[in-house]
Structures are given as structure tokens and as C-alpha cells.
Amino acid sequence: TRQLAGEVIAQETGKGKFNNYGEFLNAVRLAKTSMGRNIDPRLENAAKGNSQGVDADGGYLVSKEFINDFEASVYDESVFFNDTFKMAIGEGKNGVTLNLPKEGYSKVGTEEGVGVYGGAMAYWVPEAGDLTVSKPTFERNEWKLKKVAAVVFATSELLEDITAMSSFMSLSASTALAIKLDDAIMNGAGDANEPQGILNTNSLLTVAPADATKNITVDDIFKMWSQMRPRDRAGAKWYINSDLEPELMKLTLGNMPIYLPAGSIAGAPYATLLGRPVVPTDTTSEIGTKGDIVFANMQRYITITKGGIRQDVSIHVEFLTDQTAFRFIMRVDGKPMRAEKFKRFKGKGEFSPFIVLDTRSGGTSGAAAKLSAKDAKALAKAEADAKAKAEQEQQDQDGNQIP
Predict the structure, then answer these.
(1) Less CB within 10 Å around the terminal CB: N or C of the chain?
(2) pTM of the model
């Protein structure tokens, strides 16, 4: 056995392994229906204490080969989490600290050269000229493991159908964990309990809408594209709320649709914007609000994990309702690789690997109800400005007409 978090867990009992996940679930069912008198010796006990073979508290630990398949299902079901830069943490560690050179461009002293990575200089040197000493500066970032868990209850009738139970368990639990992880990567508070979401980081760059009365415009897409560093664009994707997709289908550049094949709606959408994939999802913000469309290179977001997914089973948690509880626990943390946006070498403004469109008024009534007082005031001003601009354009057009 090996000690893990105060529990004694039997490993490699030498009494054989289950041939498949359904066979394992059936063994759990038999252990339950026999009230612990018919326990398959292959079941690995994960109860606190040392009573191997008795499912008292912690339940039965699922074999690692089944966990690997389940973990792969979580990655497949996720959108943001699957695209992040992943790091595995070894035994005895609960986090990782990275000292990364600061990126971006800034002048160092009075030199005409330009400093990158927080101070490393490159410049032209005249013959017999002196070199100026420079050194990079670093930023310290820490990732500390958090715990996310899912619990699935199954009736004895469902457990009797091994094939159905295997499919149900894998789909339901992996989907629940994937959605929770994706939501945290977007909206997490970055505290002791959750990863830091990209909407709550200083590295986020928010683009003002070209027309606050519309959910999305072609100019919005062009502006978001221009705020992404050229070197980050190749790995970037457009993550959009699925409610926004019909709006994309109606966008045109001149008379040409930008998201649908020209001339007909019979063909499938291109599913790309400016050559980068469009990924509809329900884990972005509600349509019309900040974060409903995200242009991001998620390789600039680091997630750490440890030990894969721990799954155990208890037949006692819901004894009175004749249910078996399956528990899935994953230790993970995540945050953007950089704490700040990047300064441009030339040109105004900043770059970021995470670009979102600010709140508009074209969204649903539910989205409008969620606006803060500050956002509502800004939105009202934007609408008034847009209206005034439209009226002025109409007046100019009327004045230019030939009587």
C-alpha cells in the first residue's frame, strides 16, 4: 500500500485486474447488494483506516487504466481547458512557481535601442563603440493546486446494465468536470478556491464595440484581430457564445457574407474568421455582454494538474434511496502566463493574447439586466453618440442631394 492524504489505498493487490470498466461497476453492484458479504478481491479499497475489502467510508478506488480513459474524456469534452498549456506536477508538490522574463517593449534609460523581456537590449553599435550593459527583469507567478469534484448517483437498476452504466458514468461526470473547468478558466476569481479566469486578469484587453447597438460588426472583428500580437495569432481561436453564431451568419463585407458560403445558405458555415477557427460554446458570457466573443491564444494560459482524476465509489452514501455514489476529484489550477498586457514596439496601445469585445446593447434582456451602473452609463452614452452620428450623416446626405 501507499499513503495518500491520510488514506491507506490498496494498490496492485496481485489478485488480478478488471477487464473493463463495466466489469468493475458490476463488482461494486454485487458488493452493495450483498451488504459487503460478496466483495470481489480485485476491488481496491480507498476507505480511511486499514479495513481492506470493506467499503465503509471512502469507497473503492477505480483502477488507473480506467481513470486514464476517463481523464481523456474530460479533455475531449472541454473547450478552453483542452487548449491550455498543461503542466503536470510531481509527487510531493502542491504547486509551481515560474520566474518568467517580462515580455513587451520599453526603452531602457536614454538608449535608442529597445528593451524586450524587461530590459534585454539590442541596438546598432558604431565601430569601437561601447556596449551598454542590460539585463532582463522577471515576474514571479505562482500556481497552487485547487480541487474540483463531481458526484454522480446511480440506482441499482442502472448498475445492473453494465454497458449503459459505463457510458452514462463516463459522459455525465466528464462533461460536468469539463464545464466547471472551462467556466473557471473564463470567470474564475483566482482565489484559494478557483483558478484565475481570463476575464479577471490584467492581461485581458477589452475592445470597444464599433456600434454599441449591434451584437457584432465586421469592424469589431477587425479591431479584435489587430489587438492580438502577430506571433500569437497562429495559435489563436475565436470562442463565441453559441447564441452569437446567427449574428455572424448575417455579417457581410460589402455584398459578400464573411461566415457563410457566397450565394446560398445550403453549405456549412466556414467556421473560421480571418483564417482562425470559430468555436461555439456555452461557457462564454451571455450574448451582448463582455466575454461573449473571445479571441484568444490559450497556449498563453497555463494549467497545472496532479495525479490525474481520482475516482472512488461508496455504496453507503445514499443507502436509504438505493443509490451508489461515484465521486470524481481533480486537482488543478490555472492562470494566464503573463500578468500584464504587452507594450508595442511601434504604434499606439497594447497587445494581448486574450481579447474580448465590451458590452453592447444588442444582447438579450437578461444581459441588459446584468449591467452594472457604470456599464449602463457607458452604454447609454455610446448609444447616444451612435444616434447623433447617424442623424448627422443623414443631414449631410440630405444637404448633398440635387434639388
Answers:
(1) C
(2) 0.73
